[in-house]
Design brief:
This is VPLPA-CTERM sorting domain-containing protein. The protein is α+β, with helices and mostly antiparallel strands. It contains two helices and 13 strands. A hairpin with a 2-residue loop joins strand 9 (about 115-120) and strand 10 (about 125-130).
Amino acid sequence: MFKTLKLAAALILGLSATSSQAATFTYDLFDHPDGGLSAFDYGLRLDYYDRVFSFENGGDATLVYNDSDGTATISGTMRESLGNGMFGQLWDIVYSFTGLTDLGDGAFRSENNSGAGSISLGMTSLVLGTKSNGSYYFELDDDGHRLGGHSGFPSDTFVGRGWVDPYSNLGGANDFLFTAQISPVPLPAGAWLLLSGLFGIGVLKRRQRS
Protein backbone atom coordinates (compact mmCIF):
# COMPACT_ATOMS: atom_id res chain seq x y z
CA MET A 1 0.00 0.00 0.00
CA PHE A 2 2.89 2.34 0.85
CA LYS A 3 4.35 1.83 -2.62
CA THR A 4 0.95 2.61 -4.12
CA LEU A 5 0.74 5.87 -2.17
CA LYS A 6 4.25 6.84 -3.27
CA LEU A 7 3.27 6.23 -6.87
CA ALA A 8 0.12 8.28 -6.39
CA ALA A 9 2.09 11.18 -4.92
CA ALA A 10 4.51 11.13 -7.84
CA LEU A 11 1.69 11.08 -10.37
CA ILE A 12 -0.15 13.93 -8.64
CA LEU A 13 3.01 16.02 -8.53
CA GLY A 14 3.46 15.38 -12.23
CA LEU A 15 -0.10 16.41 -13.00
CA SER A 16 0.22 19.53 -10.83
CA ALA A 17 3.49 20.49 -12.51
CA THR A 18 1.87 20.13 -15.91
CA SER A 19 -0.98 22.36 -14.75
CA SER A 20 1.36 25.00 -13.30
CA GLN A 21 3.16 25.23 -16.63
CA ALA A 22 -0.03 26.44 -18.31
CA ALA A 23 0.37 29.93 -19.69
CA THR A 24 -2.83 31.26 -18.13
CA PHE A 25 -2.88 33.34 -14.93
CA THR A 26 -6.11 34.16 -13.11
CA TYR A 27 -6.24 37.00 -10.57
CA ASP A 28 -8.87 38.04 -8.04
CA LEU A 29 -9.18 41.84 -8.04
CA PHE A 30 -9.43 44.22 -5.07
CA ASP A 31 -9.50 47.97 -4.47
CA HIS A 32 -6.22 49.85 -4.12
CA PRO A 33 -5.75 51.73 -0.81
CA ASP A 34 -4.04 54.70 -2.46
CA GLY A 35 -6.57 55.75 -5.09
CA GLY A 36 -6.53 59.45 -4.16
CA LEU A 37 -10.23 59.48 -3.23
CA SER A 38 -10.29 59.13 0.55
CA ALA A 39 -14.08 58.98 0.79
CA PHE A 40 -14.43 56.28 -1.87
CA ASP A 41 -13.54 52.61 -2.19
CA TYR A 42 -11.71 52.73 -5.49
CA GLY A 43 -10.72 50.24 -8.19
CA LEU A 44 -12.00 52.10 -11.25
CA ARG A 45 -12.44 55.87 -11.42
CA LEU A 46 -14.35 57.52 -14.24
CA ASP A 47 -14.39 61.28 -13.74
CA TYR A 48 -15.79 61.82 -17.23
CA TYR A 49 -18.91 59.89 -16.14
CA ASP A 50 -18.76 61.19 -12.54
CA ARG A 51 -18.72 57.62 -11.21
CA VAL A 52 -16.43 55.48 -9.07
CA PHE A 53 -16.50 51.67 -8.84
CA SER A 54 -15.26 49.14 -6.30
CA PHE A 55 -14.00 45.61 -6.91
CA GLU A 56 -15.06 44.79 -3.35
CA ASN A 57 -18.28 45.42 -1.33
CA GLY A 58 -20.11 42.68 -3.18
CA GLY A 59 -18.23 43.09 -6.45
CA ASP A 60 -16.60 40.00 -7.94
CA ALA A 61 -14.21 40.38 -10.87
CA THR A 62 -11.17 38.52 -12.18
CA LEU A 63 -8.37 39.22 -14.60
CA VAL A 64 -7.27 36.34 -16.83
CA TYR A 65 -3.93 36.72 -18.58
CA ASN A 66 -2.62 34.36 -21.27
CA ASP A 67 1.09 34.93 -21.77
CA SER A 68 1.28 32.69 -24.83
CA ASP A 69 -1.11 34.72 -26.98
CA GLY A 70 -0.59 38.08 -25.25
CA THR A 71 -4.20 38.66 -24.21
CA ALA A 72 -5.92 39.60 -20.96
CA THR A 73 -9.50 40.22 -19.91
CA ILE A 74 -11.05 41.79 -16.83
CA SER A 75 -14.60 40.53 -16.31
CA GLY A 76 -17.21 40.22 -13.59
CA THR A 77 -19.05 42.76 -11.48
CA MET A 78 -18.14 46.01 -9.70
CA ARG A 79 -20.12 47.87 -7.06
CA GLU A 80 -20.70 51.58 -7.65
CA SER A 81 -19.06 53.51 -4.82
CA LEU A 82 -21.05 56.55 -3.68
CA GLY A 83 -18.61 57.71 -1.01
CA ASN A 84 -18.50 57.68 2.79
CA GLY A 85 -19.27 53.98 3.00
CA MET A 86 -22.30 54.18 0.74
CA PHE A 87 -22.69 51.94 -2.29
CA GLY A 88 -24.98 51.62 -5.27
CA GLN A 89 -25.79 48.82 -7.66
CA LEU A 90 -23.64 46.08 -9.16
CA TRP A 91 -22.40 46.81 -12.70
CA ASP A 92 -21.06 44.31 -15.21
CA ILE A 93 -17.56 44.94 -16.50
CA VAL A 94 -15.68 43.53 -19.48
CA TYR A 95 -12.35 45.00 -20.55
CA SER A 96 -9.81 43.27 -22.82
CA PHE A 97 -6.28 43.74 -24.14
CA THR A 98 -4.33 42.21 -27.02
CA GLY A 99 -0.70 42.40 -28.12
CA LEU A 100 0.63 42.49 -24.55
CA THR A 101 4.29 42.54 -23.59
CA ASP A 102 5.07 39.71 -21.18
CA LEU A 103 7.10 40.78 -18.11
CA GLY A 104 7.41 37.25 -16.72
CA ASP A 105 5.80 35.42 -13.79
CA GLY A 106 2.29 36.57 -14.67
CA ALA A 107 3.09 40.26 -15.11
CA PHE A 108 2.45 42.17 -18.33
CA ARG A 109 2.32 45.60 -19.94
CA SER A 110 0.14 47.04 -22.69
CA GLU A 111 2.26 49.21 -24.96
CA ASN A 112 -0.47 49.79 -27.55
CA ASN A 113 -4.00 51.17 -27.44
CA SER A 114 -5.77 47.81 -27.74
CA GLY A 115 -7.58 48.06 -24.40
CA ALA A 116 -11.34 48.34 -24.86
CA GLY A 117 -14.53 47.44 -23.08
CA SER A 118 -17.38 48.79 -20.99
CA ILE A 119 -19.03 48.79 -17.61
CA SER A 120 -22.79 48.48 -17.82
CA LEU A 121 -26.01 48.39 -15.83
CA GLY A 122 -29.09 47.40 -17.79
CA MET A 123 -29.35 49.65 -20.83
CA THR A 124 -26.65 52.02 -19.51
CA SER A 125 -23.18 51.26 -20.87
CA LEU A 126 -20.09 53.37 -20.11
CA VAL A 127 -17.30 53.08 -22.67
CA LEU A 128 -13.80 52.22 -21.45
CA GLY A 129 -10.92 52.99 -23.79
CA THR A 130 -7.19 53.58 -23.40
CA LYS A 131 -4.77 56.45 -22.95
CA SER A 132 -1.00 56.38 -22.72
CA ASN A 133 0.70 57.71 -19.61
CA GLY A 134 3.77 58.40 -21.73
CA SER A 135 5.34 54.95 -21.49
CA TYR A 136 2.51 52.40 -21.39
CA TYR A 137 -1.29 52.09 -21.45
CA PHE A 138 -1.77 49.47 -18.73
CA GLU A 139 0.47 47.40 -16.48
CA LEU A 140 0.00 44.54 -14.04
CA ASP A 141 3.11 43.93 -11.97
CA ASP A 142 4.19 42.87 -8.47
CA ASP A 143 6.29 46.01 -8.00
CA GLY A 144 4.28 47.42 -5.07
CA HIS A 145 3.05 50.41 -7.08
CA ARG A 146 1.81 53.04 -4.59
CA LEU A 147 1.58 50.52 -1.78
CA GLY A 148 4.30 52.20 0.30
CA GLY A 149 2.94 53.19 3.71
CA HIS A 150 0.04 50.75 3.50
CA SER A 151 0.30 47.70 5.76
CA GLY A 152 -0.97 44.20 5.21
CA PHE A 153 0.22 43.80 1.63
CA PRO A 154 2.87 41.13 0.93
CA SER A 155 5.79 42.09 -1.27
CA ASP A 156 4.48 39.97 -4.15
CA THR A 157 1.10 41.74 -4.34
CA PHE A 158 0.26 42.57 -7.94
CA VAL A 159 -0.98 46.05 -8.82
CA GLY A 160 -2.94 46.87 -11.96
CA ARG A 161 -3.11 50.41 -13.32
CA GLY A 162 -3.93 52.11 -16.56
CA TRP A 163 -5.90 54.98 -18.08
CA VAL A 164 -9.25 54.20 -19.69
CA ASP A 165 -10.13 57.57 -21.23
CA PRO A 166 -11.92 56.53 -24.46
CA TYR A 167 -11.25 59.85 -26.14
CA SER A 168 -7.70 60.50 -24.83
CA ASN A 169 -8.42 64.14 -24.05
CA LEU A 170 -10.97 64.22 -21.21
CA GLY A 171 -10.21 65.98 -17.96
CA GLY A 172 -9.90 64.39 -14.55
CA ALA A 173 -8.71 60.93 -13.63
CA ASN A 174 -10.15 58.03 -15.59
CA ASP A 175 -8.27 54.89 -14.68
CA PHE A 176 -7.98 51.47 -13.14
CA LEU A 177 -6.00 51.18 -9.93
CA PHE A 178 -6.35 47.89 -8.08
CA THR A 179 -4.49 45.14 -6.28
CA ALA A 180 -4.59 41.54 -7.47
CA GLN A 181 -3.91 38.12 -6.01
CA ILE A 182 -3.43 34.97 -8.06
CA SER A 183 -6.40 32.66 -7.58
CA PRO A 184 -5.60 29.26 -6.04
CA VAL A 185 -4.90 26.66 -8.72
CA PRO A 186 -7.29 23.71 -8.30
CA LEU A 187 -5.93 20.18 -8.35
CA PRO A 188 -6.24 18.80 -11.89
CA ALA A 189 -9.32 16.65 -12.52
CA GLY A 190 -7.08 13.70 -13.37
CA ALA A 191 -5.50 13.88 -9.92
CA TRP A 192 -8.88 13.72 -8.21
CA LEU A 193 -9.83 10.67 -10.30
CA LEU A 194 -6.55 9.02 -9.41
CA LEU A 195 -7.04 9.70 -5.70
CA SER A 196 -10.58 8.32 -5.82
CA GLY A 197 -9.39 5.13 -7.52
CA LEU A 198 -6.52 4.61 -5.09
CA PHE A 199 -8.79 5.20 -2.13
CA GLY A 200 -11.10 2.50 -3.46
CA ILE A 201 -8.17 0.10 -3.89
CA GLY A 202 -7.05 0.78 -0.33
CA VAL A 203 -10.53 0.07 1.07
CA LEU A 204 -10.74 -3.16 -0.95
CA LYS A 205 -7.33 -4.37 0.31
CA ARG A 206 -8.26 -3.66 3.93
CA ARG A 207 -11.46 -5.66 3.53
CA GLN A 208 -9.56 -8.58 1.99
CA ARG A 209 -7.10 -8.63 4.92
CA SER A 210 -9.91 -8.63 7.44
